[in-house]
Structures are given as C-alpha cells and as structure tokens.
Amino acid sequence: MPSPHSSAPQAKASRKQTQIVEQIAIMAREYGAGMKLPTIVELSKMFGVTVSTIDRSLGRLEEMGLIRRKRGSGIYVSSRIDQKRIGLVFGRNIFGAGSSPFYRLLMQACEQRALRHNEAFSFYLNTPLLGRDEDDYIHQDLEDALSSGRLDGIIAANIRNPKQDRLLRSYGVPMVVLSQSTSGYGLIDLDMEDFMEQSFRAMEARGARSVGLLGTLPLHQEVFERVARAKGVVINPDWVQCLPGPDFVSPDRYEAEGRAMMLSLYEKNAGRLPEALIIKDDMLARGVCAEMEHLGAAVGKDVKIVSQSNKGSDTLYDWANRLNLIEYDSQEIVEVMFSELEALMEEPDEPRPPAIVRGHLK
C-alpha cells in the first residue's frame, strides 16, 4: 500500500518547477523581446536544478508564449513578451437566431480595442455541450488556457450564474464581469437606477401619467418601484411584468417573450394599457412593438415607449422614430472593462467598487 507521504516528493518537485518557470519568465522580461537567453546547461547551473527540469520549464514558457526555441540556435525571448493576453468569455450562446446583437457588438469592440493596444485577444464560448447543463462546466479550450497560464486577464459577459463566476475566478487570473447577478471584484454594472430615472423623465416630458414596466430580471421591478416611489408615481401592479432571469428564460427567447408579455398585459387589463411602458431590453421591446401592431395599437402614440438600445444595432429600426431610446455604446463599455482589468492586473488584491456605465437618452 502506498505511503500517505509518497506524493510529497512529486509535490515538492512541482513547486520547484513552478518557481523555475517564474524566475525564467522574470529573466526573459528583463532581457527584452528578441534577446537570446542562456543555454539549457547554463540555466541548469544558474538555478541549481537538473537539465530535464529546465527543459520542462522552457516547454511551459513556450506554451505561455513567453519564449521560443530555435533548433541549433538557442532560446529567445518572444516578441510578444510584453503583450497582454486577454480572453473574452461568454457564458451563453450569443449567436442564436433570437440573441441580442449587443454581445456581438461587444465582441467586435473588444477585438478593435485589443488591436489598437497591441493586446493578444482570444474568444471563448463557455457553454455546455449538447445535453449537458453543468453549472461548473468550463470549455476545454478555456480550461487549458487558464491552467497553462496563457491568459493574463479575463473579460466575462453573460455568465450563467454565480457558481460559474466563482469557478472562473478560482484560477487566480484577474477578471472583470459585465453582470447584474454576481459579486466580487471587477464588476461592470449598467446603471439601472440611472436608466429608470432617465426613463421616467422622458415619459414625464411626453405627458405620460401612468407608466408600466416590462423587464428581464426581478431586480428591474425593484428598481422601477423604488424610483417611482421617490417621484410620487403610483404604479398599477397589473402593468408590471418581469421575467424570472436568464437561468429560467434564455435571452435568445426575449423577442418571443416580449410578444407574450404584451399580449398578457392587453388581455389581463381588457385592452386598457398604461400611457407609457419602460422596457429593459431591446429584443424584449422588439417583441412588444410587433405584438402591439398585431393588436391594432399604435406604437409610440397609444402607448409611449422608452427602451434600452445598443449603439450600432438595428433591432428597433422599424420603430426607432416613435420610441425614446436609452442607448448603450459597446465601445464605451469595453473601454471601462479593459481599464478595470488593467487596474486589477496591476493590483489584484485591491478592493474596487463596481464600475458604472450609463446609457444616453436619444
């Protein structure tokens, strides 16, 4: 029977190799891109370890993209030694037929930003395989990149739940998250309070005295009611509906859900609708507008609408001149995300409050 202490030498050797990898990485950064490093034998003597340990360490550094070995020539510092390697992780499928263009716009903005700043950029769709729905699932490519140290930072969006968030953070790689349902450092928050304030002001300016809400999270209702109370607006609960959240209703169904919510609102109130509706998602608003027209109501006239929208998206194009839109700019969001990530990479243990992004009323 193996001794309970039989794994101790292996663990010690693994720690030693990790130390060697870190020390050679520091040396490579000191030498600078393109410079030639000492030979394997010289490194072995320098660090007091075997040639095989140095060889394994160099292999790890090659995987990380920090060095390159040329047969018959030597070991060289990679030209990408100072290049930050950023991974953009989506926890849900953003390419479905009913998915909001917001996340595709976000991905494009990340690519453009990384190109401008000479950062290595990778994209990961961290969704379970067909037939699997594990909360603790991480796609193999992403797990390999995290385990091998090929990522210096993570930008995460549309994370499925807090458990997945915690699992990604467990790798110790600095991470920022665009989310309204997780906690921890590096949060980027689309200011919901400000969205509701702007929405109420827009409806007041158009003379609306009764206002309803259609949202995608229970939290939307909480903020809506809080802002309404502060403004002295009496809310009819029959005009307020919110979905239970993305764990229960997939975001690629929001357009269909918008149609169903509008029909429910109409039937529940016998065709009597509020003068104004606040809608907290562009795909939800698309479904609402389509169903209103199907019911014979005039969008923007019979019911005034203010909706969240995304700069560069044509989701609400057919009704844009009849709606009040609070627009979010993916370029602005990405700049905030990268700035927060850079701050975390420099001071990973420094607590930081959520970074706030506000929409702009068109």
Automatic annotation (TrEMBL):
The record's section on PROSITE patterns has: HTH_GNTR
Give the matching SUPFAM superfamilies: Periplasmic binding protein-like I, Winged helix' DNA-binding domain
Spans through the membrane: none
The alphabetical list of record keywords is: DNA-binding, Transcription, Transcription regulation
Spell out the InterPro entries in the cross-references: LacI/GalR-like_sensor, Peripla_BP_I, Tscrpt_reg_HTH_GntR, WH-like_DNA-bd_sf, WH_DNA-bd_sf
Please give the superkingdom of this protein's source: Bacteria
Residue span, HTH gntR-type domain: 12-80
Question: Known CDD domains for this protein?
Answer: WHTH_GntR
Annotated protein name in UniProt: GntR family transcriptional regulator
**Which organism is the protein's source?**
Coraliomargarita algicola
For this protein's source organism, the top of the classification is:
Bacteria, Pseudomonadati, Verrucomicrobiota, Opitutia, Puniceicoccales
